[in-house]
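Q: What would this chain look like folded?
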Amino acid sequence: MKRILILVLMLAGLLGWELPANAYIVQAPGPLDSFSIVTNVINDGTDSIAGITFDLSGTSTTDGTHLVIDPPPFSVTNPAGGTSTFFNPTPEVFGFTFTGFDPGESFGFQWDPDSVLNASYGATISELVGTDVTLALVGGGSLYGTMQIVGNNVEVAWVPEPTSLALLGVGLLGIGITSRRKKLQS
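A: My prediction, written as structure tokens:
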């Protein structure tokens, strides 16, 4: 019975770790040297998306600074039947809050980031690398990731949620304890 519980906890940790990474997609399709920056958010997960935040302070521009965003105009495509509201607390941080961004839907926007030193800086898709992204889910919890180059796109590589890591750790600890007990009994 204990072994079954340990395996269930370990599988829960593994599934919790892997599924969000593939289910919620944030990408800027290439080519990487394009100045037309379109970002797509695809909800293939199990929860609705409440909001998304982009932190540009980890980016690097050719003038030695990082990207910043001016307030809209954006060209925005809202989720089907939903709305998006832009927010911009600092020049480096911006995002959208959503209503009705349900599984199976997508959201897209075209934007033109500038550099700290140049308000007419022509940013390319590749300069989005290093952008930290936070995705808030309606069902609770958040996903965190950083944009990186994947093929000819810039996409978010999600990091596991702390709860998923804890479940995985408990499962691995249980396997270790079980193995040690078996060795001692031999």
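The radius of gyration is 20 Å.
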